[in-house]
# Entry
Amino acid sequence: MKTPLTKETLGIGIAGTGFIGPAHIEGLRRNGLRVLGLAEATPELARQKAAELGIPRAYATLEDLLADPDIHAVHLATPNHLHYPHAKAALLAGKHVVCEKPLATSSAESAELVRLAKELGRANAINFNLRMYPLVQQARQMVQSGELGEVFIIQGSYLQDWLLFPTDWNWRLQPELGGNLRAVGDIGSHWLDMVTFITGLRVKEVFADFKTVHPIRKKPAKPLETYSGKLLQPSDYIDQPITTEDYASILLHFENGVVGVLTVAQVCSGRKNRLFFEINASRSSIAWDSERPNELWVGHRTQPNQILMKDPALLCPEARAVTSYPGGHNEGFPDTFKQLCAKFYNYLLAGDFSAPADFPTFADGHDEMLLCEAIERSAKEQRWVAVQ
Ligand code: NAI
Ligand code: SOE
# Structure
């Protein structure tokens, strides 16, 4: 009989340590979990990053990482086009997998990963980490307990400014690396996952309108990590035609006759990384802004509106479970990684993968792919498209 894994014996590997890989590492370490090794784009970079991040093993390739029997779980924080081949290889090597979003670049691929994980009995998560904000969990409880009444409208936006200038560049702008959808796949996916998580309502059909504000961008001659473009000089750029959307507005029909609208854009000066949702229901409304994540607005018609500040003493048990600090001690983006890692590894170490997961799984990643494909088709054909 195999000895069950414990926190002490569990070894974790990570592929990709650019912008977000280190947030995974930090989230793992804050849970007392052991990050044993990493793989990078090249063996030299792996050695350099392992030294910088204090990780004992640097592998020459992902295959080497997967061949290490001391590694039981793998985090994939690589560019989007690598998620499917790497997740598949990791599952086939018997590893549990936490994959960055999007899960794949097509629903055929994401469906295969869901099937493989199930057949091979491996724990799996997609990093829709924003679910783990305490006040997002609180919003879910408020909607699903019926406290707000019957939901009518779900609206909001996800806006950023880091791709505002035509000289702003990242691999996400290249469909062969980032996928056919850009703003929608990169950040709209977080919003869609969040509102479906909060309300429990699936999107039935969509009508999308896209715009590419910069049909030609200036691409730097050498690759760069996310958000590091601001450090470049305006020399050594080449003209690159852009086929993916800088902006999208999407009309949404949810189950139960609930309607909604989402706007996403990566060219909105001053909006650094602002996910905003508002849910209007028959008794009250709620709204939340990821740039002020410790405040939940509650709107009323017949009494003054309220701001609920994050304070575990005032939160429901689900929200309290993802809160590490008392009221007034603000929690933010890195804490969502800590909380997602806590939930995933508690589940993994408990060992019963038939139990329902309390974190986003590959199945959620697959749902998101189906939704994104409907959005892409709708924008192309300029009509309502049903989500498969
Ligand atoms: P990045 O470009 O900053 O980092 C990617 C890293 O992957 C780089 O270090 C690169 O050298 C490495 N890499 C490339 N090819 C590799 C290979 N074959 N094997 C191993 N490593 C390889 O990109 P960033 O922003 O960190 O994004 C990575 C992924 O994380 C994306 O899928 C993105 O959508 C997702 N992401 C999710 C966030 C969230 O909040 N959930 C936040 C930021 C990114
Ligand atoms: C870049 O747009 C990005 O880092 C996304 O890739 C993340 O998923 C989001 O959390 C923040 O913005």
About this structure: The domain at 134-327 is CATH 3.30.360.10 (Dihydrodipicolinate Reductase; domain 2). DSSP finds eleven helices and 17 strands in the chain. The chain has two domains: 12-130+354-360, 134-327.
